[in-house]
Structures are given as C-alpha cells and as structure tokens.
Amino acid sequence: MKLLIYKHLGRINNNLYVIIENNEAILIDAPIGTVKIIEELKGIKINSVLLTHGHPDHITEAKKLQEKGIKIIANEKDSTMMLLPWKFILLKANPLHSDLEINDNENIKLGKITINAIHTPGHTNGGICYYIKEKNMIFTGDTLFKDTIGRTDLPGGNNKQLLNNIKEKLFTLPEKTIVYPGHGDKTTIGYEKKNNPFFNQ
Fold this sequence. Notes:
This protein is an alpha/beta fold and 201 residues long. It has a single domain (2-199), classed as 4-Layer Sandwich (Metallo-beta-lactamase, Chain A). The protein has helices at 34-39, 56-59, 62-67, 79-83, 159-170, 189-195; strands at residues 2-9, 14-21, 24-28, 45-50, 71-74, 100-101, 107-110, 113-119, 128-132, 137-141, 144-145, 148-149, 178-181, 187-188. A six-stranded mixed beta sheet has the order 1-2-3-4-5-6. It has a six-stranded mixed beta sheet with strand order 7-8-9-10-13-14. The longest helix is centred in the C-terminal third of the chain and has 12 residues, at 159-170. The protein is globular.
C-alpha cells in the first residue's frame, strides 16, 4: 500500500489522502484541488471517495468526481447537509447525494486492504473516521487533530458527544496508530491521549 498526502488545499488548508493498492485508489475527502491532483496520477484508477463528513470544504469537488464515475461514500446522517451545503468561509460545494452509505463498523476493501468505518458524531452527525488496522493508521477528518479536536459550533456539532466518541472509539485503538486529520499535521493516538489538552485538564 502507498499513501499520498496533499496538504494546504483551499482557503482553510485541507488535507487530501490518496490510498493506493495495486494501481487502484481510494480518496479520503474531496477538497479544492482534488480533480487536478487525480488527473496527474497516471495509471491509477480512482475507485471511490470516502467522505469523513459533509462540511463544504471536505466535499468541494466531490460532485465533479462523481460526474467522472467515481463513487462517493458517506454516512447518511450528513446527507441533508450535503444536499444543501451552506457557504462557509467563501467555500461553496455543489449539492451532492452519495452513491453508497457507510455506517459504523462497516468495511471498504481496496485490494487486500480493509478500511473500517468508525462513526464519530460530534463535529457533525455523520462524522466517520476510517481505520486501517494492518497499517496502524486512521483518517479522522475533523474529529481529532494534533493537540486539539474538531469545532462543535457548526451545524450538527455536539461537544460532549465528540469528546465521548474520541475517548471511547479512538483512544481505545493501539497507541502507535498514526492519526491523519483533515487539516494540519499527523499525530498518534498515544500522543493525543497523553497531550491533547481537551483530555488532560
């Protein structure tokens, strides 16, 4: 498996992750710049996009990808948000209906790689983290960042719910698990358990 990381995309510095296995790939989110990036990936077939949640900066180019025949996968609890995306920091996403719905503890296969969905509402109702156990990595969207957590003052936000889901669903993963968030730098579960100020007050 190969992981490509693209950072600082768009106005609020989104991250895009491309997981490649045997010349096929899955994307994590679809921020500004995604279409251009995948067009430059010669010889790689993009199978689908796994959306971590429905905020417009994470789905900005999802509709364009869908029109290219790439499947969009998301949790149905963010479906209304995706169909009626609001303008956020000058970002505007096109209305979007996912091709497939994914729920807690369901799996997506990419070759021999298994990607497990972990439903972590709190940033949005349909927030999903994607865990690859055999590679010790998790893609957390805006649920968990290095030294902080996702904001909860936007539609679908619930601070208590977010904190509980991080503690109960993410902090129970192996401490060596690498965390790849939707913005900013990577971290590890072990580091966040010890150092994240939201859990060490």
